[in-house]
Design brief:
The complex is a heterodimer of chains A (216) and B (257). Chain A is an alpha/beta fold and 216 residues long. Chain A is 26% helix and 30% strand. Chain A is built from 6 helices and 14 strands. In chain A, the strands form 3 sheets. Chain A has an 8-stranded mixed beta sheet, with helices on both faces. In chain A, strands 6-5-7-11 form a 4-stranded mixed beta sheet, covered by helices on one side. Chain A has a two-stranded antiparallel ribbon with strand order 8-10. In chain A, strand 12 and strand 13 form a beta hairpin. In chain A, helix 1 crosses helix 6. By secondary structure, chain B is an alpha/beta fold. Helix content of chain B is 35%, strand content 23%. Chain B has an 8-stranded parallel barrel with strand order 1-3-4-5-6-9-10-11, surrounded by 8 helices. In chain B, a hairpin with a 2-residue loop joins strand 1 and strand 2. Chain B is globular. The mean pLDDT of chain B is 92. Classes of the chains: A alpha/beta (216), B alpha/beta (257). At the A-B interface, helix 1, strand 8, strand 10 and helix 6 of A face helix 3 and helix 5 of B.
């Protein structure tokens, strides 16, 4: 079984790949972790991961600059229904559109816009940077066995924009930062985290292990 | 709720931790990767590597350390020291750094901050501000930016410079008092507070920590979002866990799980 981590020039895939390798080993799933910019590999993969750091429009441009990549992700995730995980801007790209600098269309798999975080407390800094707790809105296989809520484990966030979902039923968890911030979304075989599981120590490795075992 | 970050900082020279990390029975007290692993296990919220290698030619050693650390420590990693070009930043990010700290290059050419933020996003661009108090007794507080380890004055006002680099795209500021650094007498709280209150991005307090109360003061009185320290952890005076419990007892929100 192969997990394709989509490489489209968006920063550091080393950490993500290493975290998936560790989780694969620890969960006993022994999936092959493949960092690739080849659409054919992505279309063929059993699971797809879309990471992303930086500006929304840049990431979208990076994705579009690889001929056939969006089509390959669509074939895998939408037509074949393969488990798909978007991370940070990778998750934001699953939305309808991003509003960072200029309005940029997303993949349209999760309803909503990605808009600036505007904490209702003006003393709160943006970016929302650091460790925050997750408040579950529903049960989901990816958060299975992870202590959540105010006394639960923490996830590492670093972002200035957040997904404003049109369908609350697609929100798995939020974090509190001067109001709710969408932390995790899911629809059928698609999931996305605003936080970085590959940087979130115990919570992150558990979530990745859950993703590797997920059979939606 | 977002937690206050506690960040141990490792000074690295020619691939070795300067002065070594004397705790937790490390096999090799000078190995930055082993020290990083120990701090990861101890619950540090983030790690900071500061490369003080004099020669730019030895960059490969640092990249190797970053890469080996990122392969084992699934936590945020900030790397600084000698970052001069967009290519330097790209190299560090590809090796596994999450954030890159820019110091002298931002002073020499503030537009470098904008170039970096446009290419890689503000979230990974930290500007390290080294400042010294230049106001005399009885005068209003004023701090100036210094480079070269506090030896070279620049004539730049620290608060104005902080506002400027944030406007250009810095996503975080690492504020070090060159008066306090190494003195173990606590942060320059007035400096940290003046900058924290002047900018919308998170500020990391640095320079001068001698005890756990200094960490608390950095947040409570300095308004910092994160507190950085080196020697109190490296020499085993306090563990990360002790520091966090102390901060929690003082009423600060820290990550204990």
């Amino acid at each position: 079984m192969t997990v394709a981590i989509v490489d489209y020039g968006s920063g550091n895939l080393n950490s993500a790949a290493k975290a998936f390798e560790r989780a694969s080993l620890e969960s006993g799933t022994n999936e092959r972790i493949l960092v690739t910019s080849d659409p054919a590999e992505v279309a063929r993969a059993d699971r797809i991961v879309l990471p992303g750091v930086g500006a929304y429009a840049d990431c979208r441009r990076g994705l579009d600059s690889i001929p056939g990549m969006v089509e390959a992700m669509t074939e895998g995730a939408i037509e074949k229904g393969r488990p798909f995980l978007g991370i940070c801007v990778g998750m934001q790209l699953m939305a309808t559109r991003g509003l960072e600098h200029a309005a940029t269309p997303g993949l349209g798999w999760i309803g909503g816009d990605v808009a600036p975080i505007q904490p209702d407390d003006p003393s709160l800094k943006v970016p929302h940077m650091g460790w925050n707790t997750l408040h579950p809105q529903q049960d989901h296989p990816l958060t299975d066995g992870i202590p959540l809520g105010p006394e639960g484990l923490h996830a590492y966030f670093v972002h200035s924009y957040a997904l404003q979902p049109t369908d609350e039923a697609e929100v798995v968890a939020v974090s509190a930062y001067g109001g709710p911030v969408t932390a995790m979304v899911a629809r059928r075989n698609l999931a996305g985290t605003q936080f970085h599981p590959e940087k979130s120590q115990a919570l992150g490795l558990r979530l990745i292990s859950n993703f590797l075992r997920w059979r939606p | 709720m977002l937690k206050i970050r506690l960040i141990p900082c490792l000074d690295v020279k020619d691939g070795r931790v300067v002065k070594g990390v004397q705790f937790l029975d490390l096999r090799d007290a000078g190995d930055p990767v082993e020290a990083a692993r120990a701090y990861d296990a101890a619950g540090a919220d983030e790690l900071c590597f500061l490369d003080i290698t004099a020669s730019h030619e030895d960059r490969g050693i640092l990249l190797d350390i970053v890469s080996r650390t990122a392969a084992e420590c699934f936590m945020p990693l900030t790397v600084g020291g000698g970052v001069r070009t967009v290519e330097d930043i790209r190299g560090l990010l590809l090796a596994g750094a999450d954030k890159v700290s820019i110091n002298t290059a931002a002073v020499n050419d503030p537009n470098f901050v904008r170039d970096a933020a446009e290419k890689f996003g503000s979230q990974c661009v930290v500007v390290a501000i080294d400042a010294k108090r230049v106001s005399g007794p009885g005068e209003p507080d004023r701090w100036e930016i210094f480079t070269h380890g506090g030896r070279k004055p620049t004539g730049l006002d620290a608060i104005a410079f902080a506002r400027k680099v944030v406007a250009l795209g810095a996503g975080e500021l690492l504020v070090t008092s060159m008066d306090k650094d190494g003195t173990r007498s606590g942060y320059d709280l007035a400096l940290v507070r003046a900058i924290s209150d002047a900018v919308p991005v998170p500020v990391v307090a640095s320079g001068g920590v001698g005890g756990l109360d200094d960490l608390v003061a950095g947040v409570r009185d300095g308004h910092a979002s994160a507190v950085l320290a080196a020697s109190i952890f490296h020499f085993g005076e306090h563990t990360i866990g002790e520091a966090k419990r102390h901060m929690a007892e003082a009423g600060l929100a820290v990550r204990l799980t």
